[in-house]
Amino acid sequence: MKRLGVIMLPFAVFMLSCTTNQEVVRVESQVIESQPEEKVLKRKVAIARFSNETQYAKGIFYDKDNDPLGKQASDILSTKLAVSNKFILLERQDMDKIIAEMEIGDSESFQQVSADYIIIGSVTEFGRKNVGDVNMFSRSKTQKVQAGVSLRLIDVSTGQVIYSEEAKGESEETAKTVMGLGEEADYDATLSDKAISAAISKLVENIINNCMDREWRAYFLSYDEDGIIISGGESQGIEVGSLFDVIKKGKKVKNPQTGMYVELPGEKVAKIKIDFTGGNTTSNEFSMVSIIEGKVEKTNLSDYYITEE
Predict the structure, then answer these.
(1) Under a CB-based contact definition with an 8 Å cutoff, are residues 235 and 42 in contact?
(2) Which of 10, 30, 147, 171 is most buried, judged by most C-beta within 10 A?
(3) How many angstroms separate the CA atoms of 66 and 63, rounded?
(4) pLDDT of 153-180, one tens digit each?
(5) Is 3 domain-assigned?
């Protein structure tokens, strides 16, 4: 019996050494005062295309218009932009229109689209691997997924790429067994989401900053006996009583190197006040305004745009 006890003692010590000590941490409840939501004029953004440039999941029945990896990345980016509460994301039918406009290749055609900014993205790298570690009494298996994402941000008013960058993300999960005890982990599909999300997270802040640092714009829709109507409404952050400047667009010149039109600085010619907002969706919202300073020519409404004071 004593001999059996001597044999069992090292095993007991080993098992005790594998036991995880748990520490109870007390968290005192705190009262957090809610902060007022920052008022911003939201920009309209469309994710026009998110392609899969890797060889992952490209079998014989691969459909580039219904690529799961590209759609996965597009959904993650869309969610992150929506959480910032600074954008209105256009619906799929609007994105299809944008893609058709982009194929024309003329910078003027960009300006017919109802978005302020267009995002074009691609998954440039995607891979997964398993790494194992075997010891005398234990073994572990680590699953790793790496993803690379590239994004371009286009200013619709000029058709120019104002931001372009690539980032990489990684996620991993480890399963460990001790003397045959533990879980055997199969491939975790959520690791793909986490790796792509990690890569996109590195780019989202720069996208937000590039969009918000540029002036917000709205445009005249009509000016007649029924009133003066501009684009945009409540969902964009336009409020009754708010004041905006009216800018007459500067001259456009064509860059012979790029073929793009460059708009020279405009001139402030008037000030307007929001009298009423209407519409029930982001695509049909409008605001009725009155001119309180300056003058706007009714017959040349396309020569102007509205921006913050």
Answers:
(1) yes
(2) 147
(3) 5
(4) 988 877 788 999 999 988 877 666 554 5
(5) no
Q: How many CB atoms lie within 10 A of CB 179?
A: 13
Q: Within a 10 A sphere around the Cβ of 305, how many other Cβ atoms?
A: 23
Residue range(s) defining the domain that contains residue 155: 43-212
Quick check: is 189 in a domain? yes
Q: How do residues 176-199 score in pLDDT, each as one tens digit? A: 655 454 455 555 667 888 888 899
CB of 220 within 8 A of CB of 228? yes
Residue 130, beta-bridge partner list: 143
In a domain, 249, yes or no: yes
Determine how many CB atoms are found less than 10 A away from the CB of residue 2.
5
pLDDT at 269: 95
DSSP state, residue 42: P
Q: What is the dihedral of CA 215, 157, 199, 123, to 10 degrees?
A: 180
Ranges in the chain, pLDDT < 70: 1-38, 57-66, 91-113, 130-140, 174-189
φ/ψ of residue 43, rounded to 5: -95, 145
Tell me the residue ranges of DSSP E strands in 97-256. 117-134, 138-155, 160-178, 181-182, 220-224, 227-231, 243-248, 252-254
Other beta carbons within 10 angstroms of residue 299's beta carbon come to: 7
